[in-house]
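Thread: "does anyone have the structure for this chain?"

Original post by V.I.:
We have the sequence but no experimental structure in hand. Need at least a predicted one for the grant figures.
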Amino acid sequence: MDVLLANPRGFCAGVERAIEIVERALEQFGAPIYVRHEIVHNKYVVENLRSKGAVFVEELDEVPPGGTVIFSAHGVSKVVQADAERRGLKVFDATCPLVTKVHVEVAKMLKSGHEIVMIGHRGHPEAEGTVGQAGHGIHLVETLEDVAALAVTSPDKLAYVTQTTLSVDDAAVMVKALKARFPSIQGPKKNDICYATQNRQDAVKFMAPQCDVVIVVGSPNSSNSNRLREVAENIGAQAYMVDSAADLRPEWIAGKRRIGVTAGASAPEILVEELIARLKAMGAESVRPLDGITESVVFTLPRELARR
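Reply from O.Q.:
Generated one for you, tokens below.
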């Protein structure tokens, strides 16, 4: 049994920035530091930060007056931003800059009088944050049935944006359906799906045809990790997702010759290393990293948290 490692995999620049914001806030201001929602969707990361003094909350009324709160990498609505200001909270915004880019697009589209369609997952904090950039005039669609049922006020003044962590292929199908129904709909100048999501999906498309089974390291609520599993399955590979090496079931790899391993953008490399160690204990003889894109994107930290 051999193991192939997808490249790139694991942490992206937006996730690294978000985690570092929490760690530096803890260093400078001491615990507790409150974080609205999971900073990124990974159980290991969240538990590690919790052990250092981060307190994860779902609503701002759980943060005491004068407390320090960090908005997660997924972004928040304007209502949440206003609520934090009203409560006098000290805020650090860990929203991924690529999500912020979508928020800016929404503002421009609204200003130019467009009604907006967002392609995204209902209940996902990024989708909620982006839809929450507008008080009205924005519709969320998740399926082709949603597109077919979509009722808009101005079909000739329509634009769309997408969640940054979607499957590139699934998003293309949704955009095609929107254009078929609304031929004059306008899209963003540049694809909203982030570079890291695209690169990790492309790496799986390259790896999966060479494998008998693909294992994705990622937490169940991680959108981009789920998409990696789906990409592998759509190519025809057996694919499973694990939160940690302990979740790996022996029957998934029994009799298999080649195992592919990747990790979602919110999954740290230590979890990949632990999975590889378990695969070796279960009979893997070699581990070969595949060639792939080298990512060099770095996002700056809030000025107040930058080390002088």
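V.I.: this helps a lot. Residues 172 and 178 are 10 Å apart (CA to CA).
O.Q.: and The domain at 98-181 is CATH 3.40.1010.20 (Cobalt-precorrin-4 Transmethylase; domain 1).
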